[in-house]
Amino acid sequence: MITDKQRIAREKGIGSSDIGTILGINPWSTAYDLWLRRTKQVPDIRGNEAMDMGSALEIPILAMASKKLGVKVVRPRSVFVGAHKFMRANVDGMVGSTARGNPIVEAKTTGMSSGWGEDGSSDVPEYVKAQVMYQMMCASSQTAHIACLVGDRGIKLRMFRVEYDHDYAQHILDAVERFWENCVKVIPPAGTASLDVLKQITRDVDAVAVVSVDLFEEDDRLKQIADLAQKEADEARARLVTALGTAKRGKGGAYSITMSEVRSERFNGKLFQSEFPDIASRFVTESSHTRISVKKETK
């Protein structure tokens, strides 16, 4: 959980939250996405509601962690730099003092307990383990305490403990060095970027790239497979609903189906604009998005 100022500083190097992405174990981002950001081809990630919520809860989580551990937890004011200048880690808290080598404390929040083990264990999601391992590498620490506020079926603070692992740390160091070299030399990493990130690239409106026909054919082939799979899934769902007859619910083995009416109220913007055009014009803001259109010429 870092501030906007820390996030801007992180753009100059690799932070602990980047490690899962570099190792290919971050479910929300790819190494190619991160490479595009670090090479300034797309903007870096800015805060969202989930990040803001995590930042707001960081202090009380660290306070609860301090009570559970029975030790004083102090928040460092500066970044820890590792074996290379580009290795930078913002640590949420440290035990006793902010001296290099002291155990670190990482504050987390999650709405899903999947991947998180029992309280007091070392069972945390792999991308979290990689994150705190990198923090230990940068801060010369041997132990990381992870305080996670879990909001699945009630709210409870779970404490986890991860010890420094030399082999794992070396694995991370090797991956980080390769990735940073790719950033410096502007060499794309293996894999692909996500479409949402690729849409953010500033493009030359007058340029026309020569693209391999194989890529077009692969896109076309997989789209046809996806369309067919969606059609078959819709038909299967229709057969399932047909089997209900006039019933609202159905059961079969471990499965169940329920037909429910969902009501919602929506603001009628067109009606408001027609009735109060002067007022409506004051609240109109322009937005845009990138649309991807792939076409095949027909002979």
Description:
The protein has 2 domains: 4-198, Alpha-Beta Complex (Lambda Exonuclease, Chain A); 210-257, no CATH class. Strand 8 and strand 9 (255-258) form a beta hairpin. The strands form 3 sheets. A 5-stranded mixed β-sheet has the order 1-4-5-6-7. The chain has helices at residues 4-10, 19-23, 31-38, 49-69, 126-139, 166-185, 195-198, 213-242, 269-275, 277-281; strands spanning 73-74, 80-81, 88-89, 93-95, 104-110, 143-150, 156-163, 249-252, 255-258. The chain has 10 helices and 9 strands. Helix 5 (126-139) packs across helix 6 (166-185). 40% of the residues lie in helices and 13% in strands. With 299 residues, the protein is of the alpha+beta class. It is globular and about 65 Å long. The model has no long low-confidence stretch (mean pLDDT 91).
Name its key features.
13% strand; 9 strands; 40% helix; Lambda Exonuclease, Chain A; 299 residues; globular
Element pattern in H and E? HHHHEEEEEHEEHHHEEHH
Tally of contiguous helical segments: 10
Helix content: 40-55%
What is the level 1 CATH name of the largest domain? Answer: Alpha Beta
- Per the CATH scheme, the topology name of the largest domain is Lambda Exonuclease, Chain A
List the topology elements.
Blueprint: H1 4-10, H2 19-23, H3 31-38, H4 49-69, E1 73-74, E2 80-81, E3 88-89, E4 93-95, E5 104-110, H5 126-139, E6 143-150, E7 156-163, H6 166-185, H7 195-198, H8 213-242, E8 249-252, E9 255-258, H9 269-275, H10 277-281
Parallel strand pairs: 5-6
Antiparallel strand pairs: 1-4, 2-3, 4-5, 6-7, 8-9
